[in-house]
Give the backbone structure.
Amino acid sequence: MDGDFITNFEIPINPQDLEKETDKSFYVDEILDVNTFNSSESHSFLDETDNKLNDKPYAITNKEIFVTIYSYIHHFGTLNDSAKIRLVDILTSNLTSLLTSITNIFFHNSQSQSGDDFDHVVNVHKNALKMLIFCLYWVITKYEKEEIETTNESAAGKKKTRNKKRRKSVIEMDSWKERIIEILCATLKHDLASLWKREKAEDAFVLLFFKTAFTMMENPENLKSATVKEAIFRLIITALQVTSDSLQTVVSSILHMIMTSEHMVTCIVDMIELIVRSSAPLEIAIDSNSSVGKLFVSELFREIGRLDNDELNKDTTGTKYLSLFITEMGERLPQTILANMSVVISHLNDESYQIRNSIIHSISRVVATVLITSSTENNSRNTTSENLTKKTRDQLLGILEERVQDVNAYTRSKVIQCWSYLCEEKAIPLNVLPKVVDLVIGRLYDKSAFVRKAAVNFLKSILEFNPYGGDLRLTLFKEKLEEAKKYLESIPKLTETEKEIQLESEREEEQGRRQASVKLCLFFKEAIRFVEQMHETIPSTCQLLNSKTSSDVIECIEFFVKSYNFKLEASVIGLKRSLKLIWSPETSVRDATSEAIQSIFMDLNKLTNASMCIEVAKQFAEFVIGCTKSEISALECIVNMTVLKDKFPKVLFLALWELISDQYSDYHSIGAMIILGMIASARPEAIRRKLKTLISDGLGERSEKSPILATYAFSVLQKLSMDDSSEAFKENEKKKKGDDDEMLKYAGGNKNFKLANDHKLFKIIVDRVIDSEQKVNLNDWVIFTESALNCLFSLCEQPEQLAHHIIKEISVKTNIGKDNNSEETNAISISTHELTKLLFLLGHCSLRELVHIEQLFKKAKKISAKAVTKPALPEKKRRGRKKKEDAQKRGREEYEEDQETTAIEQELGFSNLDDHVLEEAFEEKEKGIITDKTIYGSYLPLILNICCDNSNMYKYSLLRKTAILTLCKYMCVSQEVCDSNMRLIFSILLKTPEILSKQAMDGYASIRNNIIVSIGDLACRFPNSVERYIHHLYSCLRDKDSRVRKNTLLVLSHLVLNDMVKVKSNIFEIVRCIEDSNEEISQMSKSFFTELSKKSSGNNNPIYNLLPTILSNLSHKSADISAESFQNIMKFLISFVTKVQHNEKLVKKLCQRFDLVCIASSTSTVNNGEVYEQLPQDEDLNEYTKQSQQETSDEITKTDVNADTIQQWRNLAYCLTQLTFNDKCVQILLSEECLKSYKKALMDYEVYEYLSCIPAKYKKNASGKGKKANSELGVLSNELKEAIDEWEKQIKTLHIKLSEENGLMSKFQRDEADDGSEDEDNGEIKAKKLNRKGTTNSSKQSKKSTRKGRGRRAKDYEEEEDSAEETEEEEIDMLFDDESEDEKEESDLELFDEEEEEKAKEKSPKKGNSIETKEADESAVQIVVSEEEEPPQETVIRKRRTSRRKVSLNV
C-alpha cells in the first residue's frame, strides 16, 4: 500500500469541529469553493473523485480526496439536484466497495505481510470506514434540514413554485434514503470489533448510525412513507444489537426527541412496539425475550424516572409530549408499562397533572388488558402466579382509588373516566365495585364541572355494563335471594356417619349444589347492595339538576333515562324532577328533557307490536299518575311540543285508547286519560273523532264506581272546545305528504265546537251531579262536579239553563225549597250533606257563568274588529276560474262568520255588535249574575250566616269551608258583594281560635288557604277594593302551618312582581321567609327577590331602596330571628347592590343609623305581630343624626345600653362588611361625621372587629390585583393609606377605653382569655390522664379562680358559646365525674357564691349597665335549666359549675 493516508481521523461531535486545527487528529485546513465551478466542471471534478475511489476503496483517506468531498458537503445547500444525487451515489458505492475490501482483508490474510503492515492496512480501512459513515451522516443531515425548511415554507404559503420543482428531487431521494439505510445496516452486520481489535467498536462510530436514523426521523415527511419509516426502524434496531457503551446516549436522545416534537411520540412508540412484539417481520424482529430489547426499553423508562420534577414543571411543552408518550404506550403496549410500572409510578406525585393523567390512563389499560388476561390464564395453571396477578391488580386499583381525591380537577376527571373504561371492560372486581361507586358518588358534589360530568358518565357506564343484568328492580333481587335461601335450606346437612355411607359421586354432587347455592346467595346480596347504592345516587343527581352548568343537567337527565330503562325504582324520582327543566332558559336543557321522555315512551323501536305498545302505554300511565300538578304541567308541555312537531306515534295513541277500556284496571285507565288530555291540548280534533268512545269508556258504568276516572274524562272533554283552526294549526296542512305516516298529525280543526243541550253527555253530567242515590262521598263529589261543570260550560250551547236546573234539583233535596208554612211542623230538617253540595254549585256555577260571558264578549270583539278592518269588495267583476273559487271560498267564510255572529247575538241577547254596546252589555250581564232576583243572589244571606258562624256551630266543618269558598267566588263575580264582605273575609283569615286538635288545625289552615288564594284573585279583579286590606295578608307569613305560609308567599310574590301591590315596609315579612324552616318556602323567597332585582332600571334598584327599612325591622325584637339568620338574609340581599354609587350611599346611611338605633327602637310599633317602622325619610336623616349626636355629647358611659341595642349595632356593622368598598367608601367610613355616629358602638368587641376588617380588606384587594383592580376599587394613595392607619389606631384606643368604662371585655382581653383557657384546660386534662390524684388540687385552684371571675361575669353583657367551649364543658365535666370530695366542696362553693351574689345585688345601685347585664345573664341561666325536663339536682349543679369554670378561664 503506497502513498500517504489519513490514519488519525476522529469523529467530531459537530461536523464543523473538523475545521479546527489540532495536533492530535486530522483536520481540514482548506475548503474548496465549489460554488465557482460551473455545471460541467463540477461533474468532471466529481467523476475524477469517483474514479480515484473506485481504484482504491480506501482512497478517501487521501487528504486531497477527503477535502474535495468535504467541500462539496459543506456547500451542499447550493448544489443543484444532479450534483447532490451524484455525491450521494459516490459515497454509497464507495462504502460498498470498502466493505468488500474489509471482508477480503480478514479472509485473505497473507502470511507474506508482516504484522505491522497488516495493522496499517486495517487502520487505513478503519479510518476510511469512519470517514465515509461520517460523510453520509453529514449529507443526510444537510438534506433533511433543507427539506424541513422547505416543508415549513410550504406550510406558510411561501415559494410555491420552488416547492413544485423540489418535489421531484424528494421523490428521487426517497429511494436513495432506503439504499443508504440498507448499506448502513450491512455495515453494522460486519465484524466491526475486528477493525478496532477489541470487543466492541468505537462509541462515536456507532452513534453515527443512531444520529443518521434520528435525523431522518425528525423530518415528518419521512415518517409518512411506510418504506422509509420501516427502514429507519431497521437501522436503529440493527444498531442496538451492536455491542457498545452508547445505549445511555441513545436513550437520552430518544427521550429528547419525545419531549421536543409531538410527531415523534407516535413514531417512537411504533418503534418500541416493533422491538417488543414477536409479530414483527423476521428480518428485523427482536424476540420479546431478547435482553437487548428489554434493556433498551427499560433504560428508556429509567431515564424517564430520573427526570426532575422542577424541570418538568418548567418545560410545559416537553411535559405534555411526555404524557402523550406514556398514554400511547399504555394504550398499545400495556405489558411493557407493567414491566416498568415501578419507574412510571415515581412521577405520580409530580405537580404536572398531565403526567399524572397519563400514568393513570396507563394503569387502567394495564388492569383492563394484561392483568385480566393473566388472571384468566393463571386460573388453569398455578395458584402462586394467580395470587401475584391479583395482588398487582389490587395495588394498581388502590392507586386509582386514591387518585379520585387528587388536588387537580383534570386528574380527578381522568381517574373517573378510567374507572368508566374499566367498567366497560368488566375489569372491576365485584368486591371493589361498592367502594368505587361510593367514591364516585362523592365526586357528584365536586366544584369542577369536568369531574361532575365524568362522575355521572361513570354511573351511566356502570349501569350499562353492570354484572347483574338488565332488570335492576330491588324487589326482584330480594325475592330471588329469599328463593335461593330457601333452596339452600332445603339441601340436607348430612352427619359424618351419613357421609361415610353415601356414595362419593352423590356426596360430590350434593356438595356442588350447596356451593352453587351459597354463591348464588352471595351474588344476590351483592346485587342488592349495588342496586341500593344506585338508589342512593338519585338524590345527589337530583341536586345537580339545579346546577348552572348545562352539562351537569344534561348528563343527569341522560342518567335518569338509562336508570329508568334498567328499571331502577328510584329513577322515577329523578325523571319527574327533570320534567320542570322544560321551562329552562337553556335550549340544550329543554331539548334534553324533551328527548328523555320521547326516548322512554315514544321510541318506535319499543313499539314494534301490539303487546309492546300496550306495555309502554302502561308504563307511561303509571309514570303520569305519580306526578305532582307542576310535574304534570311540565309533562303536558313536553307532550304538546311532541304532538305539534308530529313526533307522537300513532300506535301509542291507539294503545292509550285501548287502556281506557274495561279490560284494564282503573289505575292504568286514569293515567291514559291524563295523557289523552295532554294530547287534546295540542290536537283537539284527534280526540273529537273518538268522542263516542271517550263517553262510553270514560263515563260508562265503571266511572260510577270510580269518580276519578270520570273527573279526568271531563277534563279531556273540556279541551275539545279549543279553537284549533288558527293559522298555527293550518300551517301543518301545508306540509308535504312524504312525512312519516307513523306519527299523529293535524287533520283539520273546528273554530267553535259546541254540543246541543240535549246531548247524551250533558244528560250524564246532570244525573251524576244531582246524584239522587248518593253513590259518591262528598269529597269525591266536589272534585267530580267541578270537572263536570267545567266541561258543561265549555261544550254546551246554553250552559246556564242546565246549571240552574241542577241547582234547583239540589235545593229541593236540601228541604230549603219546601213550603215552610205547613201546619204539620214548625221545624225544618235540612240535610247538611246536600246543603254543602248546593253551596259549592252556587259558587262554582256563578264563577263559570262569568267566565262564559267573558269568552263570548271576546269573540264578539274579534268579530267586530274583523268587520271594521274587512276591505271593501272591488267594483269590477272578477273573471276566471280561480277568481270564482276565491269568491266562493270567501263567501263560505263570510257565511260561517255570520252564523257565529248570530249565535253570539242570541247568547248575549242583542243584535248589534258595536263596541260601545258590547261594553254596556258586558257590564249589565256581569252585574246581573248575582242580584236579589237571581238564583245566586237569593242564597247570599244563608251563605253569610254560615260564614259568620256567630253561634260557633260550624267551626271548621266542610259546610263552612264550602260557604267561605262560595262567598269568595261571589266576591270575584260581583264588586258589590266584594266591597260589602271584604272585612268579613279578612276577619276570618286573621282570627285565631283556640285549637285543640290536629284535625282542627288542618281544618282552619284549609280555610285560610282558600281565603289567601281568593284574595290574590280579588286583588287582580278589584284592586281598589282589596288595597286597603292587603297589608293584613303579610301576617300570614308567620302562620304555624307551612302550607299557609307557602300560599301567602305565592300570592304576595305574584301581586308584587306584577305591580298589583305597592312594595311597602311590610316587605320585610317576605325577607324573614329566606330563613324559613321549610326549604321550599326559603327558595321561593329567594326567587322572589331575584326577580324583584330584575325590575331595576337605571339608578332605581328596588332592593337598594328597601334595604334601610328591611334592616331596621329585622333588627327589632318582634322580627324574632337569630343573629345568624340575620347575617344570612342581609348577605343575600346586599349581593343585589352592585352599583358603586349605591354602595357609597349605603355606607353613609348605615353609619348614621348607629345613632338612630335607640330612636328606632323607641319609635317602632307593633301591630298584630307586624313591625311598622316609623323612621324619618332619607332627606331628614342628617338632621336626626346631628340632633342625636348633640344629645349624646361625650359622656358615653352614662347612656344605658341593653343587649338589643348592642345586637342592632352588630347588625349594622356586619352589613357594612358585606358592601364592596372603593376609595370613596373608605373615605366616608373614616370621616369625622361617621366616626361620631359609630363611636359609641365601639364598646362592643364584635362591632370593633367588623369595622376594623373593612379597611384591611380594602388595602389587600386594592394593592394586590394590579391596575385593573385599582380602577375598580379606586386608588390606594399614600394619603388614604396614612388615614387608614391613623383611623385604626383611633378606633383601637376608643374600643379599649369604652370597654373599660362600661365594664366589658375588649377584643384583646378576650383573645388573651381564650388562649389562657386553652392552655389551662389542656394542662388539667393531661394531669388527669397522668395522675388522678392531681386532679383534685387543680380543680380546687380552678374553683377559687371561678369565684374571682364571677365579679367580672356580672359586668359582661353577654357570654359567647361556640363548639370549642362546648368541648371544654364536656372535658371539665369528666374531671368531676369520679371525685366525690370535689363535688361536695363544689356544692359548698355553689351555695357560698349564691349568697355573695344576693349581697352584691342588695349593695349595687338599681341603674347601670353592669346590673342589667348581670340580671340578663342570670335569667338566661334559669331558662337553660328550666328547659330540661326535671333534671337531677346533681346535674343542675354540675351545669352551673361548668359555666362558672368557663367564665373563669375566659377572664
Notes: The radius of gyration is 47 Å.
